Amino acid sequence: MCLSVCPSHVSISIAALSVCLSVRHTFLAAPYFNSLVHMNDAVVCHCRFNYRAALLRIASCSPDITRMRAQAESAQSLMEFYGAELPSVSTPSPRTVQLHEPSASLLKDTNPWMLTKYIPAQVGADGNCLFRSVSYALYDTEVHHVHLRLLCVIEALLHEQLYNGSSVDFYGPYAADKWLCLPAYDSFVCNVCVDGSYSDMISVLALSTVTQKPIQTVWPLYVAPGAQSPYTKFVMGSGITSTNHPVYVLWTVCTYEGINSGGVDINHFVPLIERPVDAQYVTLIDDATDPLESNATHSVNSAQAMPQQNVTASDDTDNDSDVCVNHDCRNESVGNSPHVAGMSSDHFLSFTECVNCMESCAQTVPEIPDGPKNNVYFLVDQTRNLEREATGKRREFRDDCGVWESVRSRTVYLEKPSLRQVFLKNGAYCARKVIKGKSTTEPLQAQPPNCEIVALHQYVSRLNLRAHAYERRVTCIPTVNHVALVEYIGTFPDHVTNHGNANTGGEYIRSKPEVLEKIRTSCKSHASKPKHIYTGMQLNAETECDKPRNLKQVQNMSVKEMSTSQNSGKGNLADDIQSLCNDVTQSDFVQGVFLVKGHAPSVVLYTHEQISDLLRFCGGNAVE
CA-CA distances (angstroms) from residue 313 to 113, 336, 499? Predict the structure, then answer.
């Protein structure tokens, strides 16, 4: 007797199915063969992997690690046979996230700045909260938490060396942290294979490996002034090569009655979902370009006519390639903006567009926003830079892109009102002409007054050592001195590397000028040690951007300021001797300077009043 499977008359024997179902722990074992489903008048075998049954079989072998490892290998083979894989990444929309109220209240009392950047999302509190959090953060649903737990059990059993604290190959950041409390390996694997059991930092490491995503855990409570909790860690599992787009997980509470209500019992995990960003200050670059940098002809459109775009978070965190203007965010995108696809990615604004944009001054930002900046420009307020220039300092245009390498600078002259380009040569304004196939310049017959000339000072730079196609241009106009136009063209690289002399790896982001100035002022005006200055700034900072990068940064600034104060006003030895020689005839205190070969210079210093006192007190008439 046969069952028809498809129109091609392929059949499956009932006897063969019975034999398959009788085989224990292999292929179509009973927990995996679920049903016969009718589709289009044909009967097909619908098989679905039962992750809970696989966990139960591994747990039944506990505490025998050898048997558990063999069962894990069997479960891994079955998953490969059935193609049981995690779905593709699909992050939740911040607008649909259900807020976890206890976590929000806890963060409001301990780290309020985090609520401006993240939304603590509600997940089930059944003991699987860590796996539910990662499942929700990556796949917009909690249903994959059992699948993730099974993968972690298999990973930990088959790669013991990475998860066993007594192994020489134990995960380095955990091994180096003497304050991090972790269970023994046998206890961990016997516990993690039980559905609903407690999770710890080793589970975080296994989750990072099986999802191939870095995970940033956040401990919400202060542990000591200037210190970071051992449970706040950036975890990168085995095989991960990029630090981009980590999963943020918060250690938190199921219920919260206040920070002073008798203690906070951390007993829950929730995912932190990044908030959407409002890009009200972003204007996207259109097709127009600098006529001298391209032979193509572009229409000139006023920057005032360009509509503003609203930035929305991208659903695919692995495809973060557009602009983010939130000061605390690096992962938001404008991938859904209708202007991104059609705008030019290899040209700066034309000279005319630069002038129109800066003179309009429609909207300005106090500083260049953080985040990926692809084919965008900003009008940056120059109040602070004007104050720097008044004290003899250069202008600064700080961003979070890394180290810039200067490419070129130039001054461009435009004649009003047409804004055509003219050239200043030998004190005369000239026009460019082509004579007999050669480009040349000729002085204008009627020289325009300086008030009818617009001077554009432009500075072009590119990222140092990498991503040379990604460039930045700063434009300043003396007559519009209160704003500067900052343009970015190209695609921001996935990873921002340190400069060549750096001793540490990871992402390099410049500190804010305000932070550096505050460190410098504290080092000058306080006798406190660098550690005290660092701790105070860490505790008083409202956001991460307002904190020093690390203690070493404060120490370096302290040494620099101390060296400057000690060396200020000091000349070389020759200048000092010459000054003393001059004082022999001008000062009553300097009586003589003696230079003898082979000996250091000698200086005789006294006044006649001092000699009189010596004679009076030490001579024969001295009072006993």
Answer: 20, 9, 30
